[in-house]
Amino acid sequence: IGCYWWVNRLVRGPVAQLGLMARRVAEGELGTRLPIERNDELGALTEQFNRMSTRLADATHELRQSEERYRSLFENASEGIFQTDHRGRLLDLNLALAQMLGFASPEAALARSHSLRRLAHVPPQDLRRLLGMLNRQQRGVQRLPLLIETLSGEPRWIEISLHRVREGVSQQRIEGLAIDITERQMAEQALAL
């Protein structure tokens, strides 16, 4: 009975505490720590668990801050920004692009369609030309003028830049930037007359 009590006090109890701590960290309680009460291997292991938990908490905090900065840039940019999956299905667009297309919000645009081609009324031949250029050019398509049509049917000239982003081995998405150049295009056409 005496040995059982010693093993329980010296090994099982501290190991069970480490197990509970590991479970709490796995469930999202990052930064959880245990007091280091010993100067042996279990104390060293507890110290390593504490460091791991702190590093995970710090890394998660930094990642959240980075995501917030990216989201702020995305949402507040004056240029239209979008992402599609490898099949061309619209994943996200910012407010500037939604408004450029005649929608009050990105949610309103996505409620209408997840096809950017349909939202912008891009003729199929222009889309094929654009995708062909994207497939041929490793650095993507840069500043290509394209005539689109807004929700109300108003023609708008945009300058579009696209590039592919790899996700894993075979998956890709397309990220793009659109700038409204309608006024510039109309001024150039007026000067040409």
Main beta-sheet annotation: 5 strands, antiparallel
User: What percentage of residues falls in helices of 4 or more residues?
Assistant: 40-55%
**Cα gyration radius (Å):** 28 Å
State the strand order across the main sheet: 2-1-5-4-3
What general outline do the C-alpha atoms trace?
elongated
- N- to C-terminal separation? 103 Å
Number of helices: 7
- Arithmetic mean of pLDDT: 87
E-strand count? 5
In short, what is this structure?
With 193 residues, the chain is an alpha+beta fold. Helices cover 53% and strands 22% of the residues. The chain has helices at residues 2-26, 41-76, 95-100, 106-112, 116-120, 124-136, 182-192; strands spanning 80-85, 90-93, 141-149, 155-167, 171-180.
Detailed description of the structure:
With about 190 residues, the protein is of the alpha+beta class. The chain has helices at about 1-25, 40-75, 95-100, 105-110, 115-120, 125-135, 180-190; strands at about 80-85, 90-95, 140-150, 155-165, 170-180. It has a five-stranded antiparallel β-sheet. Helix 1 (about 1-25) runs parallel beside helix 2.
Summarize this structure as a short list of keywords or feature phrases:
193 residues, alpha+beta, 5-stranded antiparallel beta sheet, 7 helices
